[in-house]
Design a protein that fits this description.
single chain; 285 residues; mainly alpha; 12 helices
Length: 285
């Protein structure tokens, strides 16, 4: 069950990142974040009301609130790092996020077996290579490295906090709702500051109504991924769930290959293969 839900998390996050990347080519990144998360919050609010999730309110929601604060900071740092580039350095480096939940699991006493340790090493190596790391010839600004590390720390923190935010399905819906409301509040505040400083909230043609279904998909896929990760981490070792959930860059690369006809570099193809091998070792270990 852990492997299934964690791999589902990778699929959803990978597709959400792919969709978000396409949308930010036409609209400001902050607007994409705020609108997609607002749609997800509205849907989750309806689910919470329908399932009576309010009865699950308790101290654990502070974990969801904290995840809602960390998420937008990580995402915006990641987008800024990608803008500064080179992407072939930023994308693989961001996968260091897996170190946070894995570290938490080890501190709490989890001890993966030898086969699982090998699987973790192989899978993480595969994810880094699947990002197409630029090994030479590309100058990297110190600010880019710092922003990427902030993003990785933020993503990993969200991983760890989401796991602790609930203990039941209805409680999970409520926790994700609180997280999304916080995301929208933080992102909206950042967008307002950006506009005051002369930034754009909308593309030149106005609000992209034609992109609304895609924005909804990005928001809902992202929140569903948080949910499936929470289930994976609650039903098995966090060290295994976190690594399998971090395979989303492979999904993004394959989506770009399938939908945009982008050719995978040899190093990316090798990385995807190693990620698959690491997944098999983890699942069988």
């Amino acid at each position: 069950m852990t492997a299934f839900f964690a791999l589902t998390t990778s699929l959803l996050w990978g597709l959400a990142d792919f969709g978000g990347g396409l949308l930010t080519r036409r609209s400001p990144a902050l607007t994409v974040v705020v609108v997609s998360q607002a749609i997800a919050a509205a849907v989750l609010g309806a689910i919470v009301v329908a399932t009576g999730g309010w009865s699950e309110a308790g101290p654990r929601l502070w974990f969801a609130f904290a995840a809602g604060l960390a998420g937008p900071v990580a995402l915006l740092s990641f987008y800024k790092a990608l803008a500064l580039g080179p992407m072939g350095v930023v994308s693989p480096l961001a996968t260091l996020s897996v170190a946070v939940p894995v570290g938490v699991g080890l501190v709490l006493g989890e001890r993966p077996g030898l086969l699982q340790v090998a699987g973790i090493a192989v899978a993480v190596t595969g994810v880094v290579l699947a990002g197409g790391p630029q090994l030479r010839g590309a100058p990297v600004q110190r600010q880019t490295i710092l922003l990427t590390l902030v993003a990785a720390l933020g993503f990993g923190t969200v991983f760890a906090l989401v796991k602790e935010a609930s203990t039941s399905v209805t409680g999970l819906f409520l926790a994700l709702f609180v997280q999304r409301l916080t995301n929208v509040a933080v992102g909206g505040a950042a967008l307002a500051v950006s506009v005051r400083r002369g930034g754009r909230a909308l593309p030149d043609g106005g609000f992209p109504w034609a992109s609304l279904p895609a924005l909804a998909f990005v928001g809902l896929a992202d929140v569903a991924a948080n949910g499936t990760y929470a289930v994976a981490a609650q039903h098995g070792p966090v060290t295994v769930a976190a690594v399998l959930a971090s395979l989303y860059p492979v999904v993004t690369a394959l989506a770009a290959r399938g939908f945009l006809s982008e050719r995978l570099r040899a190093i990316q193809a090798a990385g995807a293969g190693l990620a698959l091998l690491g997944t098999l070792l983890l699942a069988t270990g």
